[in-house]
Amino acid sequence: MSDARIAPPSFGARALGSAPLILFAAMLVYIGLNAPNFLSLFTLELILVQSLPVVIVCSGLSLVVMTGGDDVVSGGIDLSIPATAVLCAGIVAQWLSGDGGLGLATVMALLAALAVGLVNAALVTRIGVTPLLTTLSMFVAVVGINNVVTQSRRIGVDHPAILWLRDADVLGWPVSIPIALLVALALYHLAHRTRLGLHMQATGGSRDAAEISGLDTRKLQALSFVLAALAGFAASFFLLARGSGSSPGTEDNLLLEMVLATFLGAAFSPRRVVTLWGAVLGAILVAAISIGFKSMGVDVFWTGLIKGSLILIVVAFGSVAQRGR
Fold this sequence. Notes:
Helix content: over 70%
Largest sheet: 2 strands, antiparallel
Number of strands: 4
Structural class: mainly alpha
Shape: globular
Radius of gyration: 19 Å
Order of helices and strands: HHHHHHEHEEHHHHEHHH
Mean pLDDT: 86
Low-confidence stretches: 1-6
Distance between the termini: 15 Å
Strand order of the largest sheet: 1-4
């Protein structure tokens, strides 16, 4: 990795990097004082359940950022993951609504996710299109495909497996929480406890150094896009369970929350870089803010505006903190 990443950050950089967390903490305190029943076990359970799809897509995005670098423009970014999740959910819902089996629906959704990941990987690593432009275009294209598949309508799902994921519990807590935790832990193990994961991090830290060391950086970056698409596939089942079906337009809010949570999570890292566990914590914080605003009766349009503004603040503070190292 480059010296800039290894050197400890200055006090000013650490303070600037912590600013988003301080802002979120202040917002949570405000919500806790003004939203009825916000500080309760019921709300905590609701926050965790609502955050699960975001936790999974954030985990996928973290792998892409860790492999491609944390520069939002030229580094690793994959904005197509939420659209991939919604497309997979739409395929499963559409197939089940026609009395098809869940097994074949799962296979079709998996193939769709793999296709998205492979196209992203080819465009970025073989043709040389920037990840930001590639995945933003892919997001729009995949949403269009999903609208064709579902005819832009809500499709309810009452398959026993989806209902089980929604309603079953373990020791009094929804079963979906430990399942999502296992998925996130598996990706964390891949990223931090395997040789492949260390090679991906080395590529994101310094591509030139990684290539000198003999690593195939293009292959590693391509793999990160495929893994991110598979994370979208996994998140689709949590979307189906959370919404009791597939709903058009879900991808927009999921995209906002994924970007916000992932880059907010960098504030948890001592070096202020995107990490998988930081993104998971960020996803839970973002869900808490969303539910808190809803409890206070804040209009959904204002909530979207606030989230968009928070993304700008988080990214801006992160950039300033990096320059201050």
